């Protein structure tokens, strides 16, 4: 697993048009969903993926342009199918979606971990139809097209890596990988069960799963700054919640709230010197949280962060 936290916020190419492009894309997504009255068209992880693919000094997860489009699209389709056609309770459905998307990433040889969010989102929100994977396909097509333009202009951030053939993988390496993913799966089971029993489904908000996977990466910078990471996640969720609450009360459109939330998280990245893309997704996620649940959303994120990071620190101690 490759950590996305490369360098620091001070190193990010803060080109206004790239950050503005991410915000405009997010606002356009939310505005389109509102115009068509289709909340399933909103994919919060888009904010994290666009930011990482366009504005960071090295593309997160070292994902090729093809995988930037294909991996989340396939994962979104998987999550929608599980939500629509698997007649099981919340926790088993979520675990099935998680296992399926991890298997897809392995088969595709893709390191695009936010694809996990694309599969889990329909399970957590409890709604899905065919418009969701189609929306993810179109939105990620825009991100991939932007990546291609940046590459052609010489401003792209994709460091091409040639993966080692699977046939060369040692037995020890396979065992280590299986052990790590087994622990991650156990973490997901624990927090999913907590979410199911408490009814606070957003304590397993999909971006938290991605952030936790990166947090437990050996030697990851996130491990050295757990307090800052926790603060970033909670503040991002709170800012997104406040912006959405004011939008629901008629102060401004919901798409404007999404834009304000993304800009606020950019500032948090800079202030904390901690560019963690899933925080952007947590800030945009309130645009699809039901209004009656919205005031509880930051508290659910606090519970989820605490469970994921504390359990992750314990399970991966010494690594």
Describe, in plain words, how this protein is organized in 3D:
- The chain is mainly alpha-helical.
- It has one domain (9-158, 171-315).
- Helix content is 67%, strand content 0%.
- The longest helix is centred in the middle third of the chain and has 28 residues, at 171-198.
- It is globular and about 55 Å long.
Topology:
Layout: H1 16-35, H2 45-54, H3 65-85, H4 90-108, H5 115-125, H6 131-152, H7 171-198, H8 206-215, H9 221-224, H10 226-248, H11 254-272, H12 278-284, H13 297-315
Helix pairs in contact: 1-2, 1-11, 2-6, 2-12, 3-4, 3-5, 3-6, 4-5, 4-7, 5-8, 7-13, 8-12, 8-13, 10-11, 10-12, 10-13, 11-12
Summary of the model, kept short:
The protein has helices spanning 16-35, 45-54, 65-85, 90-108, 115-125, 131-152, 171-198, 206-215, 221-224, 226-248, 254-272, 278-284, 297-315. The protein is mostly helical and 319 residues long.
The overall pLDDT average reads: 87
CA radius of gyration is: 18 Å
Which descriptor suits the 3D outline? globular
Share in β-strands: under 5%
Helix count equals 13
**Order of secondary-structure elements:** HHHHHHHHHHHHH
Return the domain count. 1
Report the helical percentage: 55-70%
